[in-house]
Amino acid sequence: MKFFKLSTLALASVLALAGCGDDSNDSVGNGGNTSDVPVKPPVDNSLSELDQAKEMIRTAKLFVSDNQAVTEAYEGASDILTDNQSTRLNYTFHIPSDLQEYMKEQNLSKLTAANIMALSNDQAFDTSLGNIVLTPESDFVATLNADGQFALTGTTKVDVQEYNYIYNPATKVYDETTAIVDTFTTVFDGYENALSSNTSTSNFNGSLGFESIKIGTGIDAVVLSSSTKGATVSGQFSDKVVVNDDFDMNDVNEAGITLEKAVIKLGSLKLSANDSTIEAKNLEFAALDISRKLADNSLSVRTIPYKIAITGKLTKAKPTTDIEITLNATANDNDIKKFITIDGADNIEEAADQYVGMEIVLAIKGNVTKESATIIPLDFQANLKRTARNIIELQGLTASVEGKKLFVKGQSTLDNNYDVAGTQFTVEQNKASITLKVDADGDFIKDSMGKLGDIMVNGKDYGDLMDNDGKITAKFNDNSLIIL
Fold it and tell me: Is 168 left (phi over 0), alpha (psi -120 to 50) or beta?
C-alpha cells in the first residue's frame, strides 16, 4: 500500500499554479501581519445615529453592486493559461521525470541529444515517453548521479502524438495510426530534481527547481522562472528508508514505517503567460501520517495535510488587475496525532468530544476592474478559527472598497458530518449593526413578514432589512428606503 507519493509532476503543478507564500509578516489585508485578527474600524462620530444606520446600508449596497460589476467585467476575461498551454505545461514536466525514470531503469548517468536521436526507434525509450516524441538540439543533456539527483538543460522540440485504430477490411484487424496533434519547443535552464536518494535514512532532504522553463513561442509562450531554483522537500520517517521513485516510500508502511512529517517550501516563482503574471514569494505545505494496524498486521495509513500557506501576486492587463493574495490554513499537528484515528471501515474519524484546532487567514489587497474599466481599490481580510468540535468562528473580517469599510464577525455551526448546519454573523460600521442568519443551504433566514434583521445603532432599532420575493430593501423609522 503506497501511503505517500510526491511525484515531480505533482510538485511541478504546485510550483506552476499555486502562486505563493508563507505566514510571514506580509503587509496585506489589515495593514500588517495577517496573523492579527482584524479589528473594527474607528467610529465616525460626525454622523447621527440614524445616518450611521443609513451609511452602513449604503456601504453594503456599494459592496453588492461593485461585486456584480466586477463579476461582469471578468466574465469575458481570458484564463491565465489556455487549455492548450495547460496541456503543454503538463507534457513539459513529464519530460524530465520520464527521462529520469528511463535512465534509472537502464542504469545510465547521461543522455545527450545524440543519444536521444539514436533511441528514436527504441521500444523501451518510446514507452517511457508515452505519446510524445523529442527532437533535441545539440545543447540538450540529462544527467543522473549515483545519489539519484537528476539534472536537465537545453532545448527540444516536442511532438505530441495521437493514436487511433482504423479497421482494415482486407486483414480484418485494426491498424494503429498516429498523427501529430501539437508541436512546440521547450527550453530547460538549470532544471534539477533531487527527490530521490539511494541512501537509507530516517530524515530526507530533497529539492526540485529550475532557473527557467520556456514552453512554446510568440503569443503562446509560457515562461516559468525562479530566483531560488524552486522548492525544497523534507521528510521525517519512523525508521530508515530508501527514498526512490521521487518521494514514494515503495510500500514501506507494510513494514511499519510511516511519515512523521513532510514539508514542502517554495522559495520564489514567476509564471508569465498571455497578459497575466503570477509572482510567487514563498509556499509552505506540511503533512503527516496517521495509521491503524489491520488484522493481517499491515498498516492502513492516511497522509493528513495540516498546513498550507500561500502568498502571491497576480497582475493582468485586461481587465486591469494588480492584487496580492494570502491564504494561511493551519491545523494543530499535535491535535491530529492525538485525536485523529482510522476506524474499522478505513475512514478518518475524530475522537469523541475532541477536535483538531484550526486557524485560517485569507487576505486580498490591490486593484481590480469593474464595468466601464473603472479601477476599484480592494482590501479584504478574514480570520477564522475552529473553537469547538462543531463551531467555526469568523473572528473578524474587514472589507474596504472605494474608501468604504465594513466589519463582520460571526460563527458557523457544524452537524455530525461536519457540514455547515447554519451561520449567524453581524455586519458593523461605526456604531450601526445588523445580525443575519443563514441556513444549511446558504439562504438567508427571514421571518413570516420577510424581515431579515433589525438595523441597530447603540442598541436602538432604526429600521428593518426586508426580503420581498428576492428584492432586498432597508426600511428606516423615518419612512425612508434604500433598495439594495
Answer: beta
CB burial string 416-434: b at 16+ within 10 A, e below: eeeeeeebebebbbbbbbb
- b/e 317-328 (16+ beta carbons within 10 angstroms → b): eebebebbbbbb
Q: Specify whether the CB–CB gap between 467 and 41 falls below 8 A.
A: no
Amino acid present at 278: I
242 — phi, psi (to 5°)?
A: -90, 125
Helices (H), 253-402: 333-339
Kindly state the cell numbers that stand for 32: 500588517
Half-sphere exposure of 252 (CA within 13 A, CB side): 22
Cβ–Cβ < 8 Å for 329, 285: no
pTM of the model: 0.78
d(CA 160, CA 181): 6
The owner of cell 520517517 is: 237
Share of the chain above pLDDT 70, in %: 90
> How many helices and strands in the chain, by DSSP H and E?
6, 26
Do residues 215 and 89 make contact, with C-beta atoms less than 8 angstroms apart?
yes
The model's pLDDT over 380-391, given as tens digits with 9 standing for 90+, comes to: 899 999 999 999
Three-state DSSP at 35 gives coil
Which grid cell sits at 305? Answer: 495535510
| Joined grid coordinates for residue 47 | 454622523
Nearest 5°: phi and psi at 54? -70, -40
